[in-house]
Write a structure and sequence with these properties.
- This protein is of the alpha/beta class.
- The chain has two domains: 12-131, Rossmann fold; 145-240, Winged helix-like DNA-binding domain superfamily/Winged helix DNA-binding domain (Arc Repressor Mutant, subunit A).
- Helix content is 39%, strand content 21%.
- Strands 2-1-3-4-5 form a five-stranded parallel sheet, with helices on both faces. A four-stranded antiparallel sheet has the order 6-7-8-9, with helices on one face. Strands 10-12-11 form a three-stranded antiparallel sheet.
- β7 (151-154) and β8 form a beta hairpin.
Length: 241
C-alpha cells in the first residue's frame, strides 16, 4: 500500500511595516505565494508577536514607530533560534546596508522594490536556510570532531567549544567555522564563501561575509581586533590557521 507524502510545511511570515499601502500589498502578494502571513504596524507589536509565536521569516521595515527596525534586529539576534530577517528600507547607501547586516539582517532590499524581487529574495533565504544542515557535510562522518588550538567542533552535535566552554554560534557562523576547519590554511575569497555557505543563488550584498567573519572572530579570538586564527589576506579574502 503506497504512502501519501506529507504536505510541505507552510512558511510563516511576519510583515512589519507602518505604511498601510506597502504592508497590505506585500501581505496580499505573499499570501498568494502560499505564505501564512501576519502583519504588524510597529516594532512593539512585532516584538510581542515574535515572543508569542514562531515565524520562519520577518520582512522588516527600519523606520518604525516605537521600537525601530534596527533595534528589533538586535533584540532578535540575542534570542535562541531567531527567524530569518529580510530588511526593506528606503535607506539605500552602502553604510545603511552594512549596518542592517551588522545588527542581524540576513538580507537587505531597498525601496522601492518589485514584488517579484521580494518573493525571490524570501524564497532564496528560505531555500538556503533549509539546505544548510550542519550535520551533513559532503558525506563526511557526522560524528567527526574538528579541532584547532583550543577550538573543537562536534559535527554530530552541531556544537562548538572553546577551551572546554560551549560557544553560541548562529548557523552561518557554524558553517563558516566548519568550512575553515575542514580546509585550514586555504585562502577563501568572499565569493567562494558566499557560494559555500550562502549558496550559489544568493543575490544579496557580499559584505555580509565581512559581518559574519567579524561576529565569528568575537567568539573564537582572544583579541578580535588582532586575530591570530581567522586572518584577513589583503586583496584575496580570509584564511584560517
Amino acid at each position: 500500500m503506497s504512502q501519501v507524502a506529507s504536505p510541505a510545511p507552510i512558511t510563516r511570515l511576519l510583515v512589519v511595516e507602518d505604511d498601510d499601502t506597502i504592508r497590505e500589498t506585500v501581505s496580499e502578494a505573499m499570501e498568494l505565494e502560499g505564505f501564512a502571513v501576519t502583519a504588524a504596524t510597529n516594532g512593539q507589536s512585532a516584538w510581542e508577536l515574535l515572543n508569542r509565536e514562531r515565524f520562519d521569516l520577518v520582512v522588516l521595515d527600519l523606520m518604525l514607530p516605537g521600537i525601530n527596525g534596527l533595534d528589533l534586529c538586535r533584540q532578535l539576534r540575542q534570542t535562541n533560534n531567531p527567524p530569518l530577517i529580510l530588511v526593506v528600507s528606503a535607506r539605500d547607501t552602502e553604510t545603511d546596508r552594512v549596518l542592517g547586516l551588522e545588527v542581524g539582517a540576513d538580507d537587505y532590499l531597498t525601496k522601492p522594490f518589485g514584488i517579484r524581487e521580494l518573493v525571490a529574495r524570501c524564497r532564496a533565504l528560505l531555500r538556503r536556510n533549509r539546505s544548510q544542515d550542519p550535520v551533513l557535510a559532503n558525506g563526511a562522518d557526522s560524528h567527526q570532531v574538528l579541532e584547532h588550538a583550543d577550538l573543537q567542533l562536534f559535527r554530530g552535535e552541531c556544537r562548538v567549544s572553546r577551551g572546554g566552554e560551549e560557544l553560541r554560534l548562529s548557523p552561518k557562523e557554524y558553517k563558516l567555522l566548519e568550512l575553515f576547519l575542514q580546509q585550514p590554511r586555504r585562502v577563501w575569497s568572499r565569493e567562494q564563501l558566499i557560494e559555500q555557505v550562502w549558496g550559489v543563488d544568493y543575490i544579496g550584498d557580499t559584505k555580509t561575509v565581512d559581518v559574519h567573519i567579524r561576529w565569528l572572530r568575537e567568539k573564537i579570538e582572544t583579541d578580535p581586533s588582532n586575530p591570530i586564527h581567522l586572518v584577513t589576506v589583503r586583496g584575496f579574502g580570509y584564511r584560517f590557521g
